[in-house]
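Table S5 (text form). Sequence records supplied for joint modeling of the two-component complex.
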Amino acid sequence: MAENEIMLEEAAKIHRLDSTNAKFYTKNGFLAMTYNDGEEEKNLDRVFLHRAFPFELLWKYISVISDDGKEKGVIYDIKDFDDDISALIKTELERKYYSPTIKTIDSLKERYGFSYWRVTLSDGRNLNFTMQDTFRNIVRVGEDGAILLDVDGNRFVIKSIAGLDRKSYRRIELYL
Amino acid sequence: MFIRKKEKTCVGGLYDEIKRILPDASAEESLCTFRFNLDKDDPEKRIEGFFYADKKRLCVISDGELVLDIDSSSVSEIKTDIGVGCIYVSYVEKSSGIIKLICRSDMSSSKRIIHALKKLNHYLEDGKELHASSDGEDGVDRCEKCGRPFQPGSKTCMHCTSKKKVVKRLWRVASPYKGFIVSSIVLFFLVSVLNLAIPYINKILVDDYIKSENPEAVSLFPFVLVVLSMLGTQLLVRGVSMVRSHLLINASNGMIVDLRKMLFDKIQKLSISKISKRTSGDLMSRVSSDTSQVQNFLVNYLPNVLEQLILFIAVGTVILVYDYKLFILIMIPTPFVVLSFNLFWKFVMRMYRRRWQCSAQSNAVLHDIFSGIRVVKAFGMEHREAERYDKAARDERNITEKADCIWSILMPILQFFISFGEFIILYYVGNKILGGEMTLGEMTLFSSYAGLIYGPLRMIAGIPRHAMRFLTSSSKIFEILDEEIEISDREQSVDKAIKGDIEINNVSFGYESGTEVLHNISLSIKSGEFIGLVGKSGTGKSTLINLIMRMYDVEEGSILVDGIDIRDYSQESLRSQIGVVLQETFLFSGSIYQNIAYAKPTATREEIIAVSKLAGCHEFIIKLPDGYNTKVGEKGYNLSGGERQRVAIARALLHNPRILILDEATASLDTETEKQIQDALANLSANRTTIAIAHRLSTLRNATKLVVIDKGRIAETGTHDELIEKKGIYYGLVMAQREMSKME
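The corresponding structure-token record, covering 920 residues in total, follows.
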């Protein structure tokens, strides 16, 4: 099986990035990368990070894409880098995948196919947002988590549905 | 996230905030202003930020501090990048071409930001101001009144639509059937009066005949008369009810057919952009299920409620006049019944909604498995899929069991509440009979009346729910009817035979506000030319074709056909002279003959065969047992991708258009068949303008001119030889394909 994986990886020409062949830093406010593509060392002033499994594996299988839209390599695990670079990648991912965490659901009303949510976030802020086709736009993550996608394209995370207070749980229960 | 009315940003307020830091900023001079709310570096940190740009400077204010103030002339472009749940704004430095990050915001303001930056980018590009409606407040699909978002593709707020208005409008639709409706209302009254009379006759029967104090004096004839009058009244009630139902069904059916026709006509007139924002399921649900909901309310629910309501008032009045104490006793359970119905209903509805969702889920699983049954079998996954469905079915069973169990416990309790009132009456009137104040006939009369009163109560309890459902459906219907037709014919639109010259002048276009798919395209196509559009996927080739067909209107610039703006042609005239074959061909349910003749219903059999031969489909059609009468589409003969495409080409050729558009039309064909069709098309296209999109470049070998589109702009134009010599994008594509064919 493992042999098969290596063969596939080679066949697909996946360039695995780790501390031996890549270095990340910040330039002009963006994440930049110096990497060795197997032949020579190259500098990219701006790279984009894309999670391959954004609902399941937040820090693994991160595709690194250059400004022209081409994949330059894949980070299999951010732990493959030194702590400071790994923290930089983590910050960049958190910056790109902006998804505040919901602490409580204070109100939830549904009318005409929309659901109107008033929530308190983990930082104590209150927020209103609207969801459409609510049932489909609540994505279950892992055993107990959920991601809510609102009409504007914002994402909100509920880390543990079972951990919600009773009232909040009763409000969201219908859509789970 | 939505902004409630009181929090809504207005341009004036925005400038007040900006002016505190930039005193010389002015709304008149401004090219672009917007708010943003996320720190550009710290992932989670929220800030209050403002962007301001005029012809001289470009400034960014973050939490009350000016963090960027640069000369506008040093910037060549402002870029936006969409993250996940956020948007980045950066600028390109003119001197070095370096991109620098300016700010970040969550998605609530993304549309507004993109829209606001459009005007600035326009200025940065050519130094001219854009006078289109492109203020920062545009491009946000929200209700001005309540700040809630509109349904996709709609500009009507379902929350702020006046319900009275909806009923009034529905009454207007009903006006041709006024006669039926008024007559049925009169009959309602009649039925109610007759219903009241039955217990009264019963009372006479009991008091004067059955419990007569002097039975010997009772003669048979009046007794028979009373019995017959009872029978007559019953017959009359049934008869009048039948006539009333007939009248109502006639009126409501006519009304629903009218409403459905209005809806369907309107949907047909809406532009592709409006229609594609709604799912076909949504549109179908509005045409069929929302109209059915309205019909159901009008035919089944409203008449019943009216009848019961009239009965309730009439019986109530009779009892009140006769004995007010009895009336109060009867009314005691009323508030409990209404309240408990509403209270329990909410709870039970919750259960049933969950059941509905589980049922929808298990249906979706089933649909998924059946649609992909070939894949399931090919991978030997039958067992796994069976388990998947089993789980979904189990979930549904569990919730159904729970809902039914609760319902079966609640219902008898509620029924008891209702019948409890009847016990009170029995006790009261029993006492009166014993005291000699009431006769047995009167007791039966009031018991019947009490029964008549509690019946309507159950129905009245459900009025809000049904009325809400009816009003929602009506609002949804009128929402479509109120849609603005984006692509409409101008008042003096032209109906004219075209030659086929196409002039595209500085056309820019984007499907979503602010995101341009085509940028400043200019192209001249002479009548009879064969133009090949080449480029990578997603560069805007099909969009350009959609614009020529006027499926969408251009945002900037113009498209002229024979020197006349396509917006000046009537849509019917323009499209009837353009033929199109798409990669994804759609064949309607019907025979192959009907599908080809779709383009020209008056076509002769000879014409059909001729175009089929030209399109290369005659050979396979003729070998089918049913020939041209072979049924295709759903439940029909399964044509292969290539066969479907050839039928579609035949359909387009029969149309005999002046402009023929082929969007990857021969992609599913083998090279030999493609060559045959290409040659046939070349013969036919002598005087026809042909625009073809193809990734397989050999398809375009007959093209008189090739246009290479890259990132929404025209990158190269010329003949095959010219472009090969140029060694640009086209050269790269040709070389890549040559490599591929060598490998093959």
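Note: The first helix of chain A runs from residue 2 to 11.
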